[in-house]
Design goal:
The protein is an alpha/beta fold. Helices cover 34% and strands 14% of the residues. The protein has an eight-stranded mixed sheet with strand order 3-2-1-4-6-5-7-8, sandwiched between helices. The structure holds guanosine-5'-triphosphate and magnesium ion (MG). The site of magnesium ion has 4 residues, from loops.
């Protein structure tokens, strides 16, 4: 608990038994509940998590073989905190920064914080090709939505419970990650900000990420979403496709900024 507010931390997990104890050990004691959402692990991740004191929830659903988004959605449904944070199981995100982020949110009107990894202190931590992919998606969002985000794909974020119904998160696969940011940016009732965090290299467990496939899926998701459910949104490209050459201002782009 911080400033009388309870904090839930959701950790999606698939086969991370070697690194999970380290990740959980590093979570500060002011975090009220840690929910590890196991999505079909074939190793001892679930046992390791419950031995470390986490609540373990199972979520079997997958979309195209990936259950990352379903795991987050299940974790949110199972959580009770005033603040809901999320991060990966692979000990690459700084749970020790949750305190400063909550204080920052408490002292401002910010409702959703995306924890931006860039620029990195150690450039080796995310490969060049992945960083290029992140920049391409950042540019895509800037062109389509007129908002400059610095890290579309961070796996760490925090939000007040009040933001949840407004975000309406639905993506079951990896696209939940860009969905969180785009949903927050486009919602006129959500005050969104990025917050610069530390980031570390994945160790002990090998990466199972298929970066080209996932990257293309993100690109298509952001593009499709802009012309379907976000067709009201403004954006740089809009003036080229709107015959009146008007750039609509998205109402409520109040405090969309980065620190
Ligand atoms: N619930 C669930 N979690 C998954 C799934 N695949 C991966 N995860 C977890 O989601 C988080 C992010 O996955 P990562 O493999 O770290 O993805 P990444 O950070 O993009 O790439 P690497 O760290 O290089 O592998 C980790 O905590 C994984 O254990 C899945 O299908 N279901
Ligand atoms: Mg990772």
């Amino acid at each position: 608990m911080l400033r009388n507010k309870t904090i839930s931390l959701i950790i999606p997990c698939k086969n991370e038994e070697k690194i999970l104890p380290e990740t959980l050990k590093n979570v500060p004691s002011y975090v009220d509940e840690i929910i590890v959402v196991d999505n079909g692990s074939t190793d001892n991740s679930a046992r390791v998590a419950s031995e470390a004191g986490a609540i373990v929830v199972k979520e079997p659903r997958k979309l195209n073989g990936i259950g990352y988004g379903y795991a987050h959605i299940k974790g949110i449904e199972s959580s009770a905190g005033d603040y809901i944070f999320a991060m990966d199981a692979d000990d690459t995100y700084p749970s020790y920064q949750i305190k400063e982020i909550v204080e920052y949110m408490e002292d401002s009107a910010v409702e959703v914080v995306s924890c931006n990894r860039l620029p990195l202190k150690d450039s080796e931590v995310i490969s060049k090709i992945r960083r290029l992919g992140i920049h391409i998606l950042n540019i895509e969002i800037a062109l389509l939505y007129g908002f400059q985000i610095k890290d579309t794909l961070t796996g760490m974020w925090g939000m007040r419970r009040s933001a949840l119904p407004k975000l309406n998160l639905r993506m079951g696969d990896w696209n939940l990650s860009p969905e969180v940011k785009v949903a927050a940016i486009t919602n006129k009732d959500i005050v969104f900000a990025e917050y610069h965090i530390d980031h570390f290299a994945r160790e002990k467990e090998p990466s199972k990420q298929q970066i080209w496939k996932t990257g293309l899926s993100h690109f298509m998701y952001i593009l499709k979403r802009r012309f379907t459910e976000d067709s009201h949104a403004g954006g740089f490209v809009y003036k080229f496709i709107d015959t009146k050459w008007e750039v609509p201002v998205v109402k409520g782009h109040k405090v969309k900024f980065a620190i």
